[in-house]
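Researcher: Let's continue the batch. This sequence belongs to Type III-B CRISPR module RAMP protein Cmr4, and it's 318 residues. Same format as the previous ones, please.
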Amino acid sequence: MFEATRLVFYYAVSPVHMGAGSAIGAIDNPIQREVHTQHPIFAGSGIKGALRHHFNRRWSGERGKNGQSLVSRIFGPPTNASDHAGAFSVSDAQLAVLPVRSLKGAFVYATCPLALGRLKRFAELAGVPVDWSVENVQAQQALTASDSAVSSGSVILESFEFSRAEGDCVKIAAWLADNALPAAPSHKFFADKLRTDLIVLSDTDFAHFARHGMAVEPHVRINDESGTADDGGLFYTENLPPESILVGLAQASLERFKKTGEETGPARLDADAILSHIFEGAGSDRPGIANKALQIGGDATTGRGLVIVRPVGEDTGA
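Model: Same format as before. Here are the structure tokens for Type III-B CRISPR module RAMP protein Cmr4:
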């Protein structure tokens, strides 16, 4: 079905709230999580919807064309979806790296064998070379890329102490720094920090931070008449913290048309052209999203949901 694939990183530059739609426990507005790992995710449907909205706004002359616009040709018709399917697909984005508060260096980029194994699998599906292997890490140990977060032979994350594991993750850190972030000068500080401050924890230890290391913000509903807080108006919203890195796949097929209009329609875009339009753009009036900010999820008016979209593979310069 799909004839072209790209590996895509999503680097959060602000807190991100991809809402789960239902509350369990003390948090009124939790973020999306996988059932079996409880790792935060970005649902593919939400990413695709954000991309469609982005291009409807940014591509010149797209609005008002209904099913004849380039956006509709790539993503599918906005109405009468049974006419034909879209030619672009995006997977759920899985958690690859999570920022965790550290005694030294403010925070580290934490990951685990499970997250790295899934990342490597995505990379191989997209045909992206991977020159590192996933090493097992014991509980209460930390595999480090350098000494930057090590204090007296230990790594202190939040209120937990981890002994330093044998070996290193230098190759993994370098690969992530080269691929997960754009090469622009504005990202150099974070790419360099990723090279030195990557830490691999056990799956169990990482799962604790993935479950309890989110930013939880209190919100108050204001009464328009009094200008003060409404009774019962306090609620809590969960956000994925900035500097988090998620990864997924973008795939494309040959463009489809409605059967009755296929003979008189425009020339079909092939799968590579679809991905090129999405990421590299189609001229100055139709810029791509590669290495640029995309707003996803809720609370956009309070600065939430900004992620840098970093595709890796053909035509991306990676």
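Researcher: Any comment?
Model: The chain has a mean pLDDT of 89.
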